[in-house]
């Protein structure tokens, strides 16, 4: 009978029938008159068996790992006691090689394993991607982005696509990638926030999934030079609304993933024991966090007035207690999240530590010390900060003070300022690092595993 061409994920209803499947040889076991293949086509894995003459044709030697092949045969339910992906197996009656793969055995099995040098793994990322873990992470990433989009739709938040090429900075000049632009200077965007703010009076609440770029010389588990930034901006809200919204979007998105059989099984494989986080998330004011760190003996490196780490004679950094006004560094933040073990909203950072656009908290009468902002970071166990958000300055005078404090020339920001001139409103938003979120969800050691081709200082290949 004529064979039905199908993708592996669609095979189940075709059991008992003749089917034709194309893919790559993921696993191969050659015995005397029996060859077992696990075929991979991106949608799933299929076990196939070749017997007798089929294993002895002149081109049988092209049956090798990673060769592209077309297999035709009858799809049979595997007998009880035997297991196969999907619960069925292809008894092949005809096959052909579409693309041979000489030397793949060596390239894949010997070079790409857990012990491989990370720089080799990075150079061979295009081959690593064919593995079950890397492709599982990327498949989960696709499901995640799709679930976020569905969640935003339910909240009436509209998707827009802001530009990557910009002439203003959002998060400070220190991490901007500059490039010549038709005789002018332009940058790769650090955040689409300012553009999202301009969309509010036009489209209402908006979000985007856009690449952001950070020229940070950070070689850490959670920093990329280019990352996928999910950002949203909401009008007519309070700071409390903002945090509740972030919590709702994250929890609803995780629920959707767990209800999706493919995504749920990948989470189960990569992060067994994963449970959706309980609501509401713990909220901790910045000043409380400083106390918490000191109570738990978590110190930070002392710096001199110039921002250089102070070292003793042995060259060890001098460690000191945290004080109000200090930045909470990555190491301290991670220790705190790991000890507490649940998501934490850290909120109310001092204005001095934060960007020019953040709304200030009202000051209590007679209060001294730093001015705090309506800002929040969401910290997750194992990763630390995955979301940064804030209420934005709605008042024009206050915005000009912010420009001044950060040494920003207001001129190129005229369009951002206009937002306060024509129908200003209380509003706020946030940015979520997609790779960091995925690292949390899939329990990956580094964000470098959570994007197709990661970029970090010195690497833009492949
Ligand atoms: O905290 P950030 O810098 O905040 C902003 O850019 C705001 N303008 C966003 C907004 O309010 N619309 O970045 C937001 C998030 C971080 O919490 C982190 O998850 C991620 O972006 N992120 C990075 N992810 C990977 N590599 C980097 N170098 C990152 N820098 C920030
Ligand atoms: Mg941040």
Automatic annotation (TrEMBL):
Gene Ontology MF: a single term: asparagine-tRNA ligase activity
GO cellular component terms, semicolon-separated: cytoplasm
Uppermost EC category: ligase
Keyword ATP-binding: yes
Main location: cytoplasm
GO biological process: asparaginyl-tRNA aminoacylation
Domain Aminoacyl-transfer RNA synthetases class-II family profile intervals: 138-454
Reaction catalysis annotation: tRNA(Asn) + L-asparagine + ATP = L-asparaginyl-tRNA(Asn) + AMP + diphosphate + H(+)
Cellular compartments annotated: Cytoplasm
Domain of life the protein comes from: Eukaryota
Record keywords, A-Z: Aminoacyl-tRNA synthetase, ATP-binding, Cytoplasm, Ligase, Nucleotide-binding, Protein biosynthesis
EC number: 6.1.1.22
Family membership noted in the UniProt record: Belongs to the class-II aminoacyl-tRNA synthetase family.
This protein's name: asparagine--tRNA ligase
